[in-house]
Amino acid sequence: MPTGTGETLTDRLAAQWRRAGVSEVRVAADLTELADLAGAADGPVVVSGADLVAHTAVLRHLVTSPVGPTVALVLTDPPAGGRTVVREERGQVVEAGRPDRVDGGGTGIFGGAVRVGPDDVPALVAAARAAAAGRPPAERGAGSGAPATRVGDPAGPVVDQVFAGLTAQGALVFAQRVRLLVAHRVDDDAGLAGAETAVTEVDEDRAELRLSVKEKDDFFTTFFVSTWSPYVTRAAARLGLSPTAVTMVSVVFAAAAAALFATGGRPLLVAGAVLLYLGFVLDCVDGQLARYTRNFSAWGGWLDTMADRAKEYLVYAGLGLGATQAGFRYGWALAIAAMTLQTVRHMTDAWYGVLHDEAARRPKTVGTGGGIGDRLNAASTRVQADTGSVSYWLKRTVVFPIGERWALIALAVALFDQRIALFAVLTWGVLAFAYTGALRTLRARWMWVPVLDTLDATLHRDDGPLAARFPVARRPGPLVLAVVAALGAALLLLAALLAGAGGPGAVGSDAVGSAAGGGSGAVAWLRWAAVPVALLVLLVAAAGAGAAHNGPLDWLVPAALRAAEYLFAIAVGVIGGAPAWLIFGYVLVLTLHHYDLVARLEKRQPAPPLHAATLGWEGRSVVLALAAIAGIVSIGLATLGVYLLALFVGSVVLAWVVLPARAARVPAGTGGRVTL
User: Fold this and answer.
1) Are 282 and 246 in contact (CB under 8 A)?
2) Which helix (H) or strand (E) holds 71?
3) Residue 256, class by beta-carbon neighbours within 10 Å (0-12 exposed, 13-18 middle, 19+ buried)?
């Protein structure tokens, strides 16, 4: 089909794919040749039809999309000409086929282009060969362990046949939507002319800058940051700054704010609040800059996740130190509580997200649907769809996202002091945890997806060598055992606080540096009796390491284990009279280790290179218990903390700098070959 410039649409598309960053463009004569070309590729493959009219930026976004290895273009065009209809949930293509065979109705049509990750290329080759032979794609059955997918009609454009076959074979396909830019599939000259006109009417660069802002963000970020941060993003792009450089500048701003909070004094507190706000703006800009320049990398995504948590907890440390120096006895205690609460919350957020993603790809088990969970899910879907409504913004705000946390800290510390800021963060955090925990529990029972059965439970539980040697307790289940462990650690901490353990250097005191352990009878009883008993209760959770994590609420197991380990470490620190700042530092190192695991989970990466040497949650707890019994808790916390920090840094260097496998891997999001 000739375009308005006289060249064929196929030739123009080929040139656009090259400008989008594809290294090699080939035009396949038929499906057999397409299968041969894809099979010979040593990286990701882009398959495109010849009926697509779009901005080059749309193609570049597909080629560089960081959401997953395999990504398909999804349009809102009407399902004409035998084109495949898709249904999406949580950004995933969960069904693809004819309009009359997609349950619940389609959410769009296949846009005629799909980037296929290296692991899914064999499925692509098989789909192309099946379509070439005139066979419909094999439908996944219930016995395969994957949800059944509706297959497409063999008729229609060949690219649609291949895509239907790819999804039918179980490939996890993410959806790439077109916003602000233009993309259409055309059937005739009139459609081609209309699509070309629509493309020319949109300023591509201006649209890309607007697209750098997240489509759905939180209230504070949307109205107090994203209204002007794109100007900073454009300036950073013109200066040639990388997203990583912006991330590091935001860390400097947060560190400076923490230092001012620790120093105290009204002018310094106000200045710290301003720096904290500007640091959060830069925290948004680094992501916007990555999207605007399409500069994505696994390293950048990992660094952004880790930097966000390090900055927040550094601010908590500044608030805790500042409150303590201002005469408030429990400044460090509040900082430790805020960090522990927020980390456990994030662990539930991460695992619930995995649960939801898995549920979107699976059919509900017969007999588990309906009820209050089903109604809550439907209500949540309606609220999320009603963007801009009061209920929509309330739902996004009540969960206390990072923008609201930083805004609350900045306002509270500027108007009041560090103590009020920490109290405010804890209060809202507890309420948000209760709200999200209750609703997610009800919805999870409706979804009934055994999340940890699909992943490495041992890795994400952070089990060590001791847990691997424990006899497996299949009843009452891993979640009950983990909750019992957390309750045991909480009771030990409560007993330590009530007994007044720790002396002048422990949590809740305004002094630093006491003798470890103290000499009172209550402290001796805690050291010699309560700590060993609490350790035994804690180790009960290790008996669930080898059990199946297939209960409807077993996605809570990692968070419960994090709570158990943190509370036990804090309790041992209090009993041993360790300085509060040392307890905070040790828990901070633990959070870095656990966020590293979560970040790798979200980026679908393997375990950290030195993970096996971290001892596991149970091994670290045993070491601290022995230190408490021996009366050297401060030495134990400091030594184990430095050891874990060294392993963390070593894993970072090995994973991102040294290992040849990382250096040789094709960067995520690049297109090695496109076939038309």
Assistant:
1) yes
2) strand 71-75
3) middle
Consecutive H or E run containing 20: none
Q: How confident is the model at residue 16 (pLDDT cuts 50, 70, 90)?
A: very high
Place of tokens 């123009």: 12
* Distance in angstroms (rounded) separating the CA atoms of residues 354 and 374: 18
DSSP 3-state of 1: coil
Please check whether residues 266 and 313 belong to one and the same domain: yes
CA triplet 12, 16, 20: central angle to 5 degrees? 170
457-497: pLDDT as tens digits: 888 899 999 998 888 877 888 999 999 999 999 999 999 99
Cα atoms in the 13 Å half-sphere on the side-chain side of 95:
20
The whole-number pLDDT of residue 425 equals 98
Kindly report which listed range (90-104, 187-201, 630-644) carries the lowest average pLDDT score.
90-104
Q: Which helix (H) or strand (E) holds 418?
A: helix 418-447
Residue 557: count other Cβ atoms within 10 Å of its Cβ: 29
CB 131 within 8 A of CB 162: yes
Mean pLDDT over residues 381-395, rounded? Answer: 77
pLDDT, tens only, 66-115: 988 999 999 988 887 778 999 888 889 988 888 777 776 788 999 999 99
**Mean residue pLDDT across the chain:** 86
Domain boundary among 448, 474, 495: 448
| 236 and 189 inside one domain | no
**319 closest CA partner among 301, 341, 334, 340:** 334
| pLDDT tens figures, 115-155 | 999 999 999 999 999 988 876 655 443 333 333 333 334 45
Tens digits of per-residue pLDDT, 270-286?
999 999 999 999 999 99
Minimal CA–CA distance to 351: which of 609, 621, 587, 551?
551
Structure tokens, 306: 């880790």
Q: Which of 535, 431, 411 is nearest to 485 (CA)?
A: 535
Domain count, the chain: 3
Most distant CA atoms of the chain, gap in Å = 93
Question: Is the peptide bond preceding residue 476 cis, with omega within 30 degrees of 0?
Answer: yes
Residue 45 and residue 163 in contact, taking contact as beta carbons nearer than 8 Å: no
Query: Are residues 537 and 629 part of one domain?
Result: yes
User: Distance between CA 646 and CA 593 in Å, rounded?
Assistant: 11
pLDDT above 90 (res 452): no
Cβ(96)–Cβ(85) below 8 Å: yes
| Residue 512, φ and ψ in degrees, nearest 5 | -135, 135
What secondary structure does DSSP assign to 598-644, as a single string? HHHHHTT----TTGGGG-HHHHHHHHHHHHHHHT-HHHHHHHHHHHH
Q: Is residue 573 part of a domain?
A: yes
Please give the structure tokens belonging to residue 674: 């496109």
Q: Do 283 and 422 reside in the same domain of the chain? A: yes
- 67 DSSP 8-state letter: S
- Which one of 414, 448, 482 terminates a domain? 448
Does residue 356 fall inside a structural domain?
A: no
